[in-house]
Every structure is written in C-alpha cells, then in structure tokens.
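Hey, resending since the last one bounced:
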Amino acid sequence: SLALNASPGGSQFIVVDRCIPGTQWSDVLPRVCNTILSPAGFSTYYTNDSNLVEAVLNDLLLELHQRQQLSEEKLLKLPSIFVAMTELERIDKLRRRADSYGLVDSPLSEKLRTLLTEGPATGIHFLLSFSGVRPMTNIIDERQGLANFRHRIALQMGEDESFTFVRSRKAAQLQLEGAIPVCALYMDMESDKAVRFKPYSTDPVNAAQEDSLAEQILIVGKYLKGRQQR
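The structure tokens again:
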C-alpha cells in the first residue's frame, strides 16, 4: 500500500526479514521487494541475514544524525525511509538483558530504541512484527518503547497480552465465535479507534492458495512498473 500511494523519488524501503526459512510466509517479503518495489523504481534493500542487522541500524543512525542537522525546509525534500523488520526476537544481540531490576536494553537494542524515538520526526519510520507480545517485550520495553507506536495490529491473544498491547481485552475477544474466520484488530492508540477486520483467508481445499498470493503480488508489481513507464 505504501508503494501504491508513494512515488519512487519520495520513498525508500529497508527490509530486515527474520521469518524462519521454509515457513508458509517466508517468501512473501522477498517477492514484494523483487516483484513490486524494485521494478517500480523504489530504492530497496533486503536482507534476511542476522549478522547484517547491526550494520543496518548503524547506517540508519548515521542517516538520522545527518538529518537532524538539516533545516526543516531541506528535511522535507528528503525521501521518507520505511524500515520493515520481522521477528527481531530471533536476533540475540537485540534481546534485552536481565539485571537485578528487570530487563534493560542491550547495546544494539538501545540503538533501535533511539531510532524508534527520534526517527519519525526526520522521516525514518518503522514497521515491526513479532510472533507474539512476550517475544516483542524481549526487544521493546512495553512501558516506554511501545509508546512510540501509534498504529498497532493484533491477532487473537491472551487477556494479559491484550492489555499490554492494546490496553483492553479487545485482542483477546477476536475469536469468540471460533477459529474461523481469522480476525484481526487494528488500533489507533492516539484516537482510541478500533477496527476489526479480516487480515487474510485460508482455504485448505484450495491447494493454489500460495500461488494466488504470488499472482496478486505480481499483478501489483506489473501495475506499478507500468505506472513508472508512463
């Protein structure tokens, strides 16, 4: 949706994909980068190598510091940077460390926290996804770090996790009528707006479900590439 609503000259994408290889969705982000973003002319960087994450964050910190020195007029002329990161709990250097007072930031998670706090004002925006709330709190402080995220999306979770993530029981009530259909919750924390929606569909009878997703990505990519050439 960002690619459809933004111009290649005004947006850049950095994708750090720590999805477990071989899982059902492990090829989605590579497909999006190779079929949609790059052909449409967006500056795009993709990696699934955990050893490169520190270099990515260091480069973003350098970019942040450079942007912070610019006037507002010059800053507005720079492209927005959208950083998508998945399952960061699988990167040991990013996990917060336990001390006598609880969990504290590791050196690398402190860099991430700086970017999450100061980045949006300079046009550096983060989209993070985790396998659950507890894994998320191993990376992000639920009391301070989570406050940097106005927009949140949740699947069904336990009540304690729901109160942590969306400050209510709403994410614990998504599947009250059964496991199907799968429901998700979008929360705008600033306006306290909640929207229940269908994030995806699964049909065990349809063996071509994954191909269907790949075809949809390809269609969007062809549209954007054609728009760029016009």
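Residues 155 and 215 are 25 Å apart (CA to CA).

Sorry for the duplicate.
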